[in-house]
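Async update (no meeting this week)

Hi team, since we skipped the sync, here's where things stand on the single-chain job. The sequence we agreed to prioritize is pasted below, unchanged from the tracker. I ran it this morning and attached the output directly underneath so nobody has to dig for it. Comments welcome in thread, and please keep replies under the output.
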Amino acid sequence: MAKKSEFATSAELRLVLAQLARRLRSEYAFPIGQAFVLSRLERDGAQTTSALATAERVRPQSMAQTVSELESDGLVYRRPDPVDKRQLFVELTPAGREKLNELRDARQSWLDAAIAAELDADERRLLFAAIPLLRRIADR
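Output:
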């Protein structure tokens, strides 16, 4: 059984990870909901607006608005389902993929600079050694 101090440590870890996630999100000069949709389309491939809404846990009407904005900006396009012509699949355009890469590069640059500025070589090795442990917890 975990000791009380271990619970305090896990609470501190949760707070620090949340703070780091917020800081990384602040590197977006782009609506975060739109960025999540672009990421999901890249990761999972073409989907209906309804499937995107379910995956992102938003109302279908909200997702329809997000997809319309992305489409207006040329970052996604809709194509008919070859089997069921009534359904439309949303897909990334080359410009959408490029935008997603720009967003990732900006966050990565910030994180690289922060690690280099704040941590010495031993601390960086310790941080990087913890990544597989954090991944195991995240994948649980």
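Quick observations from my side:
The chain is about 70% helix and 5% strand.
Strands lie at 76-80, 88-92.
Reply here if anything looks off.
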